[in-house]
Design brief:
Layout: E1 14-18, H1 19-32, E2 39-40, H2 50-58, E3 65-67, H3 70-78, E4 83-89, H4 93-105, E5 107-112, H5 115-127, E6 132-137, H6 151-161, E7 166-173, H7 184-207, E8 214-217, E9 234-235, H8 245-251, E10 259-269, E11 272-275, H9 279-282, E12 290-291, E13 298-301, E14 308-311, E15 322-326, E16 339-344, E17 347-353
Parallel strand pairs: 1-16, 2-9, 3-4, 4-5, 5-6, 6-7, 7-8, 8-9
Antiparallel strand pairs: 1-10, 10-11, 10-15, 11-14, 12-15, 13-14, 16-17
Helix pairs in contact: 3-4, 4-5
The protein binds pyridoxal-5'-phosphate (PLP).
Length: 367
Amino acid sequence: MTRWRTIHDLPTPALLLDWPAARHNILAATHLVRGKTARLRPHFKSHKCVPLAKEQLAAGNCCGITAATLDEAAALVDGGVNDVLLANQLIGAQKLSRLVELSKRTTVRACVDSSDNASAMSAEAIRQGARVGVLAEIKIAPKRWGLPPGDEAVAFVRQIAALPGLRFDGLQAYYGGLAHLHDAAERDECALRSMELAVDTRHRIEAAGIACPILSGAGTGTFWAVLDLPGVTELQLGSYVLMDWDFQTRTGDRFQIALSVLATVISASGDEFVLDVGVKGLGNKLGPPRLLGQQGYEVLRYAAEEHTVVGLPGHRLKVGDRLRVLPSHAGCTAHLYRQFVVHEGNSVRDLWPISATGYDLTTAEAP
Ligand SMILES: Cc1ncc(COP(=O)(O)O)c(C=O)c1O
């Protein structure tokens, strides 16, 4: 329970999670993979909220959670999530030490695409008497990174599979910017073709006598293109649970917008008004925010730190009125807050903490 019964009582800006919409998204993704071989591995970076990750897992058809940073992985492990893929390269002694420590508590895998990094990870695992699962990252699309798919990746896998302290578990293959292609047919085609490169690499690794149980990748904008592709085992959807208007323009209304920011009109004159939230409470990765339930407005200034200036001819808004603002990219908004206000209509259901925000030196191991 919270001390706020309705969203009207909240101080602003406040980060709202529309629970029926989020629940719809969770169930829709769960339903889409029913009967398929691939499982969901929702990406935590989109919301950084452990209770929400647990709802995603509880809905079923998931094999674990994806994380982008060590702090995210630690928040998940501390929160009781027992299968985390750190879909990133961890470079340097401090990070490797922390990774190995986490992996001793539960399944925490990381990605590698360089021999030096793999050797350093192996040495740290041996030092700590542990064995860390790794995925070799392959580059399946432009503007992404990793090893070239095919024989070069197989040669790398041969090396790392032989390293003590490491357990080769499979391939990481994410196609990055492809998810943002606007033409749906082109996006699906590119996603499918790139993921086929990963499937082919997986087959080559297995033909070389090395088990390759995992092939993990895909995202909200593209996962259905590879849903029926044999050989893909995990889908790393992130944005689908919160959604935003930018994703909706590309993926339709399969998923509903669950994230908004509640803001207050702090000044109104003529055809303009000002809201008490700016780029520090909205993010601005993909352009200006939209206003829920308003038509004919123009966001005149959205990159101010704590304000948004809106033009709306003939508006009747008064100082103190509340509006719900829809950021362009939900994944660059949630981390700006310390909690989600979980609501159903106007009723506040709960507050859920947001973890692993900011970059915290106090979590790092002493060198
Ligand atoms: C490694 C990785 N996997 C998956 C995703 C998919 O996220 P989303 O579903 O939000 O596009 C991303 C997003 O950038 C990513 O970096």
